[in-house]
Amino acid sequence: MRIGIIGAGAMARALGGGWAAAGHEIVVGARTSAAAAAEAIGHGARAVTVGEAARFGEATLLALPVSALDDVLREDPEIYSGRTLIDCTNAFTPDVGGFALSEPAVAERIAATAPGARVVKAFNLLAAEVWAGSDRVFEGRPLTVPVCGDDADAVATVAGLAEDLKLRPVHAGGLSRARYLEATSAFVVGLWFAGHDARAVFPPLEAAFAVEDE
Ligand SMILES: NC(=O)c1ccc[n+]([C@@H]2O[C@H](COP(=O)([O-])OP(=O)(O)OC[C@H]3O[C@@H](n4cnc5c(N)ncnc54)[C@H](OP(=O)(O)O)[C@@H]3O)[C@@H](O)[C@H]2O)c1
């Protein structure tokens, strides 16, 4: 699949590197750092302009600071129409005890700014180092990626891209639920930064009185 990545930092390299290794055709667009990122991603990844990255693929990853989203999306919102637009961003701001969100629902704002884009939230919960790594099973549990989006085809595309990274995708609802992924990230990363094992907050499913996994 052709994937355009906007932003050329840690997330672009981690996700782009895995997708390139899985055989996808990757271009990276940023203001100054695209060439270095394309080289780091390898497997024929190319540096292009931000506009070219936006136009390139059937899927586009927004690997940008939240503060840059408006600049990038408002340049030509029509470009994204019909494309799968993957949002991995977090609107973190420092807060007592961890992080808060500088805005409550980034994925929904992206969808409002680029009408026609098939926005899917995914990959925002974990650090780039985890996505770039090879550990995919922890304590016998496959590393699972919640995916939120309204367009079934786009959700399936992103689920496939998660599988290409040897991850286990789960469709966790429509885009209106992406704000919970964003809040979860702020809360859990705050726990981790404070030195607590966030995983220990939750018992395994079989002890959670939840519906059994299928
Ligand atoms: N790093 C993580 O572990 C992690 C984990 C989960 C989610 N996230 C989220 O993922 C997003 C990206 O994080 P990151 O760590 O990859 O960021 P990063 O390493 O700081 O890289 C951000 C990239 O955005 C580009 N950029 C900034 N402003 C731009 C603009 N106006 N137009 C075009 N490109 C622009 C920068 O390149 P130029 O300066 O060359 O333009 C840079 O390559 C953030 O929203 C972050 O919260 C990060």
Write a concise keyword list for the protein shown above.
single chain, 214 residues, alpha/beta, Rossmann fold, 12 strands, 37% helix, globular, binds NADP nicotinamide-adenine-dinucleotide phosphate, NADP oxidoreductase, STEAP_metalloreductase, oxidoreductase, P5C_Rdtase_cat_N, oxidoreductase activity
Q: What are the SSEs and their pairings?
A:
Blueprint: E1 2-6, H1 10-21, E2 25-29, H2 34-41, E3 46-48, H3 50-56, E4 59-62, H4 66-75, E5 84-87, E6 92-95, E7 98-101, H5 106-113, E8 118-121, H6 128-132, E9 137-138, E10 141-142, E11 144-149, H7 152-164, E12 168-171, H8 178-193
Parallel strand pairs: 1-2, 1-4, 2-3, 4-5, 5-8, 11-12
Antiparallel strand pairs: 6-7, 8-11, 9-10
Structural commentary:
This protein is of the alpha/beta class and 214 residues long. The protein has a single domain, classed as NAD(P)-binding Rossmann-like Domain (Rossmann fold, 3-Layer(aba) Sandwich), CATH 3.40.50.720. The chain is 37% helix and 22% strand. An 8-stranded mixed sheet has the order 3-2-1-4-5-8-11-12, sandwiched between helices. Helix 1 (10-21) packs parallel to helix 2. The chain starts with a strand and ends in a 21-residue tail after the last helix. The relative contact order is 0.14. The chain binds NADP nicotinamide-adenine-dinucleotide phosphate (NAP). Residues 7-12, 30-33, 50, 63-66, 68, 71-72, 88-90, 124, 127-128 line the site of NADP nicotinamide-adenine-dinucleotide phosphate (NAP). Keywords: Oxidoreductase. This is NADP oxidoreductase.
